[in-house]
């Protein structure tokens, strides 16, 4: 059980003798809440897990500096812990720049990685001395040339894994063969300083060979840029790395492909290699516990839409987090969260079930046609790996609160980070 509380920023963090098992910790918290008759949903945040992920990154890709993509989850404790580990940050707006710098991170650890930036945000970045920023079009180059003469521009090229969960290159990235060389020429003519190449193969990458293709283009474009007198000493490999431990395409495999491609295209390079992982850090540390606020029996056919099932029992559950809250990842991140009873139950028979969010909108559907044991009003459901693209875009539509974060860490971890300037 929690032995002491410490503060990270203004946030209370429970300290335990050793790293928690997230499921068991959620059970403890939920049992406590049951005694207090408090049924609000909560998000357990296992801070040791962040360190575990950071160490995994350092082990597999030690030559690449991670710049955490803040858009994925702007939780300030997550940011402070990553900052204390020496992580850099990818920010896409004025607000994200300010959130990160508020934690004491210096401007040289930030990249403003949004190829189409608001003019006033560019001025703000200049005032805060954030220099590294991406572009993929001529108009942005000219805008930056006027507004931020000290900017260090990184040309984002479009190289895509078309099978990624969220392909991004419809919106961003210059064609590496046709447009990118022209942009380097224009930058030279306009006197804008280009320092490197970036790409994002798509969030939730399924085909690691996209990184290899991108690195081969990056090599050519660095040579073209050097021909114009640019130093071209940064390669930014974007995001796309899986967040869940048992991902279909494991991180270790992607890392191996990247290491091989770096050996092939940038052997013994003195270039600065960076990446912008988002879900890789944010997904695993967050587990959601949501309360069943209502349950109702229906003919199973209402769920399966098959009249043959009309004699079977089915159940519709309503929980206190939904698509307007953390489960917005179902719409925006093409996610399919799979939950289950938080506590072990001695009921075995499974029924066709639907899990709805709490709002009055039927779009607010969390899981459908799910076979699950019968649950009661007031019981809890547990969803692991809920930190990526969940809380960041959650709303309080219909007056339903977002889940409350409950931070925990081990004594060992606290000892390691407590003296950091970012804590
Ligand atoms: N970098 C940029 C520019 C992005 O747009 C995103 C996600 O949309 C990321 C990094 C993070 O991607 P991921 O969460 O797949 O690592």
Structure overview:
- The chain is built from 13 helices and 18 strands.
- Helices cover 31% and strands 24% of the residues.
- The mean pLDDT is 95.
- A hairpin with a 2-residue loop joins β1 and β2.
- α2 packs across α3, α6 packs parallel to α7 and α8 packs parallel to α9.
- The longest helix is centred in the middle third of the chain and has 19 residues.
- The strands form two sheets. Strands 1, 2, 3, 12, 13, 14, 15, 16, 17 and 18 form a ten-stranded mixed β-sheet that branches.
- The two termini are 23 Å apart.
- The protein has two domains: 148 residues, Lyase, Ornithine Decarboxylase, Chain A, domain 1, CATH 2.40.37; 214 residues, Alanine racemase (TIM Barrel, Alpha-Beta Barrel).
- It has 423 residues and is α/β, with parallel strands linked by helices.
- The structure holds pyridoxal-5'-phosphate (PLP).
- Pyridoxal-5'-phosphate binds next to α10.
- Pathway: Amine and polyamine biosynthesis; putrescine biosynthesis via L-ornithine pathway; putrescine from L-ornithine: step 1/1.
- GO terms for molecular function: ornithine decarboxylase activity.
- Homodimer. Only the dimer is catalytically active, as the active sites are constructed of residues from both monomers.
- Its EC number is 4.1.1.17.
- One of its GO terms (biological process) is putrescine biosynthetic process from arginine, via ornithine.
Structural class: alpha/beta
Classified in CATH, the superfamily of the largest domain is Alanine racemase
Mean pLDDT: 95
| End-to-end CA span | 23 Å
How many domains is the backbone divided into?
Answer: 2
- Which percent range fits the helix content? 25-40%
Low-confidence stretches: none
Shape: globular
Hetero compounds: pyridoxal-5'-phosphate
CATH class bucket of the largest domain: Alpha Beta
CATH topology of the largest domain: TIM Barrel
| Radius of gyration over all CA atoms, rounded | 23 Å
Q: What's the number of helices?
A: 13
**Major β-sheet profile:** 10 strands, mixed
Percentage beta strand: 15-25%
| Record field, number of beta strands | 18
- CATH arch. level architecture of the largest domain: Alpha-Beta Barrel
């Amino acid at each position: 059980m929690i032995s002491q509380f410490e503060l990270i920023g203004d946030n209370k963090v429970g300290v335990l003798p050793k790293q928690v098992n997230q499921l068991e910790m959620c059970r403890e918290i939920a049992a406590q809440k049951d005694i207090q008759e408090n049924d609000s949903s909560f998000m357990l945040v296992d801070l040791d897990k962040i360190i575990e992920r950071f160490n995994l990154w350092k082990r597999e890709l030690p030559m690449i500096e991670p710049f955490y993509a803040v858009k994925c989850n702007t939780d300030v404790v997550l940011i402070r812990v990553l900052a204390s580990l020496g992580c850099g940050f990818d920010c896409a707006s004025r607000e994200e720049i300010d959130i990160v710098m508020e934690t004491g991170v210096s401007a040289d650890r930030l990249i403003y990685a949004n190829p189409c930036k608001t003019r006033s945000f560019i001025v703000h970045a200049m005032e805060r001395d954030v220099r590294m920023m991406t572009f993929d079009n001529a108009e942005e180059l000219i805008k930056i040339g006027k507004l931020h003469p000290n900017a260090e521009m990184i040309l984002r090229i479009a190289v895509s894994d078309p099978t990624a969960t969220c392909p991004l290159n419809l919106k961003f990235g210059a064609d590496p063969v046709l447009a990118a060389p022209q942009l380097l020429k224009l930058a030279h003519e306009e006197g804008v300083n280009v320092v490197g190449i970036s790409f994002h193969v798509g969030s939730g990458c399924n085909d690691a060979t996209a990184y290899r293709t991108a690195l081969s283009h990056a090599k050519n474009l660095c040579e073209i840029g050097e021909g114009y007198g640019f130093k071209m000493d940064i390669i930014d490999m974007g995001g796309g790395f899986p967040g869940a431990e048992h991902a279909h395409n494991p991180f270790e495999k992607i890392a191996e492909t990247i290491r091989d491609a770096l050996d092939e295209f940038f052997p013994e390079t003195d270039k600065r290699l960076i990446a912008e992982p988002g879900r890789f850090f944010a997904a695993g540390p967050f587990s959601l516990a949501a309360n069943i606020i209502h349950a109702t029996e229906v003919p199973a056919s209402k769920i399966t839409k098959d009249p043959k099932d009309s004699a079977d029992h089915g159940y519709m559950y309503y929980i206190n987090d939904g698509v307007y809250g953390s489960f917005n990842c179902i719409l925006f991140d093409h996610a399919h969260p799979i939950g289950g009873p938080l506590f072990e139950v001695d009921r075995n028979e499974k029924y066709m079930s639907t899990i709805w969010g709490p709002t009055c909108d039927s779009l607010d559907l969390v899981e459908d046609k799910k076979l699950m044991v019968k649950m009661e009003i007031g019981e809890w459901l547990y969803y692991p790996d809920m930190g990526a693209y969940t809380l960041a875009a959650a709303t309080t539509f219909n007056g339903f609160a977002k889940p409350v974060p409950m931070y925990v860490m081990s004594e060992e971890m606290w000892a390691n980070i407590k003296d950091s300037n970012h804590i």
